[in-house]
Amino acid sequence: MEEEEQAGEHLQEEEGQDDTQKGALASILESVYSFAANKVGAKPVVVKKKPPKAGNKGDDDDDDGDDGAQLRFQYEGTSRHLGQWDLVGVSGVSAMHATLIPNTNKIVLLEKVEKNTHAFLTENAEQFSFSVEYDIDESTFRPLHTKTNQFCSAGGYRPDGTIISLGGAEAQANIAEGWNSLRFLSSCNATHSRCDWDTRNDITLKAGRWYPTVEALADGRLFIMGGSTKGASVNDKEIGVPSWELYPPLESNPTHFAFLEETLPYNLYPMAHLLPDGNLFIFANTRGIIFSTKTWSILKNLPELPGPPRNYPLSGGSVLLPLRPESNYEPEVLICGGATEFSSQAKGQDQCGRIKPLAKDADWVMEDMPMGRMMPDLTLLPDGSVMMFNGANRGTAGYGRAKDPVLRPIRYQPWDTSETIQANSRFTIQNPSYIPRLYHSIAMPVLDGRVMVAGSNPNANTLEWSEFPVEYRVEMFSPGYMFTDTPRPLLAAGRTIGRTIKRPEALSIQTLQETNANPERGQGDGPATENIISFNTVFEIEVQFYSGLVTSEAQVLTPKEGNAGGKPSRVQVNLLNGGFVTHSTHMSQRLVGLEVVGYVVNREGGLDKLKVKGPRDGALTPPGWYQMTVVENGIPSEGTWVRVQ
Fold first, then answer.
1. How far is CA 36 from CA 31, 148, 407, 586, in A?
2. Torsion from C-alpha of 71, 450, 445, 97, nearest 10 degrees
3. What is the DSSP code string of 321-350?
4. What is the Cα gyration radius of the chain?
5. Residues of the chain falling short of pLDDT 70
6. CA dist., res. 30 & res. 473, Å (int)
7. Do 322 and 414 meet the contact criterion of CB atoms below 8 Å apart?
8. What digits encode the pLDDT tens for the residues 395-416?
9. Coil, strand, or helix at residue 513?
10. Hey, which residues does 204 pair with through a beta bridge?
11. Is residue 431 within 8 Å of residue 85, measured between CB atoms?
12. Based on the number of CB atoms within 10 Å of its own CB, is 75 exposed (0-12), middle (13-18) or buried (19 or more)?
């Protein structure tokens, strides 16, 4: 059964967990912010929860054995249909930058070279590590080696899954400057030293960049733009880098980009999204454009977004809404929040703007949020909704510049239903965390359908206690779709952390190809099994539905006619890339729905089969790694890594 303890008491240590990380976890868990109870209206409790045995429901208690514990934050009068928070571990470093490691259940975290880290190199316990590989299954971290300062960098993936971190900041201690750096980390299931960052002196950016943006293109290259030549509160003509370049690089020097001069001073970490026609939506300050990836010129100037600028340090957030076959993959961009002005007393913007950039008469449609928020993390969920985490309602981005943390995430449903029409809002307030996440926070969707939330480093180069100290606690947010009444088999215990998640189960792709992980750069792991999806090619997956509502092929196939309301089909197969996340900028984040073209029911009690058509091309789905999920009536399965090529 569950044992409840007041927040701040020691959590029983899990057997087998590394002693150093256990000690750090126990120490950090003792610190609970006293103001949080008043902020959210109830006092949080910490719950010890033993993982249920196979076949049990997620709400069942089990006293047999002691397989570990979880911290769960419960508030009086709340429903888990509005989400559940679990405190799962510590990050080692302050999670300023994050991206998933493809074909694993791990995430790499990076931070600034400073004294804030709690991670030390394995071979030298007195030397800090400024990047770690965090194991989501085990809730432990492994220190990595960095040669250059990756503070305020950007990043993305090569099609083979190699992670690239680029740009950065000045030299610190024994770490070299990172302005021009390219750092490579390959997908790697091993834990030995080969799985580490590789920085090459012979491969660099052609321009030094601090606060740049990266977006993956249709051919797998990375588009890199903007930033400044040194750290600053706002950009200006003396330090700005108004240019773009590619990786792999062109032979020419970086190309001048006048748009980044015209949008000064609020254009650090410009927003960018690859559109299904292969061109780029780019946004800075209050201006949006469509930028050709063939002629490398502006094709279209979009109307200005009403309200104040939305880029750093006012720091709103943007997301390319899910691209769905039901709406013929028409793209829409959502930009939300930000500060009203560059002032420590600024309020959080409480509006979002939504635009169809390829429409003939494209214009912004404004929607009111339930509350103001700057520094939001707009995170795509596998069901196609958008979650808004982290941030504050007073101040701006920057060290020591924000207060009034926003503890409640918000769910945004891009499509209309009778409920959203009746409420006259697509927003739903979710259950709160009790941990403030201000400057330098992240949120990332993970394979089992939850969202990992970490970070918050609003204080420069100090571990001293303050109202909002440097944060190392790692939380998992479980959306409401994980607590429906539709039964499903127990997922692997390491993925669910002891909960029965009642969702349809997506199993492996039928055709597996044995390939060699032969990364262009970085330290690879040798042979690896990859699930391959080819463009415009039909493949099969095995599934089991449990709602009892799916009984025929007609109920499963993707509608041929466009859906004007944008409501998703009853059954969907989605590809999700969580992107490279830093400073409320989710680079290359993307969800693409695939067309279901066939359904075969297994009448002999086995698994059914879905026939699915691979994505049209790289403009719709840039080549690389994605989390594939099956969604039935809004309930997504656990994800499976697939590679699109």
1. 12, 37, 8, 28
2. 0
3. PPB-GGGTT---EEEE--BSSSSTTPBBP-
4. 23
5. 1-78, 116, 187-194, 462-463, 486-530, 546-552, 560-567, 605-606
6. 11
7. yes
8. 999 999 999 999 999 999 999 8
9. strand
10. 181
11. yes
12. middle
Strand locations in 277-435 (E) = 280-284, 287-291, 298-301, 317-320, 333-336, 351-355, 365-368, 377-380, 386-389, 392-395, 402-405, 410-412, 427-429
Q: Are 472 and 605 in contact (CB under 8 A)?
A: no
End-to-end CA distance of the chain: 48
Distance CA 167, CA 210 (A): 6
Residues whose CB is less than 8 angstroms from the CB of residue 470 and which lie 6 or more positions away in sequence, other chains included: 94, 116, 456, 457, 459, 462, 463
188-201 burial, b for 16+ CB within 10 Å, e for fewer?
A: beeeeeebbbbbee
Cα gap 104→639, rounded to integer Å: 11
Using CA atoms, how far apart are residues 473 and 32, in angstroms rounded to an integer?
A: 11
Would you give the DSSP letter of residue 210? B
Instruction: Report d(CA 446, CA 578) in Å as an integer.
Output: 8
Predicted TM-score (pTM) of the model is: 0.86
- Tens of pLDDT, residue by residue over 50-78, are 332 322 333 433 334 334 445 555 555 56
Per-position DSSP letters for 21-81, written without gaps between them: HHHHHHHHHT---THHHHHHTS--EEEE-PPPPTT--TT----SS-----EEE--TT--GG
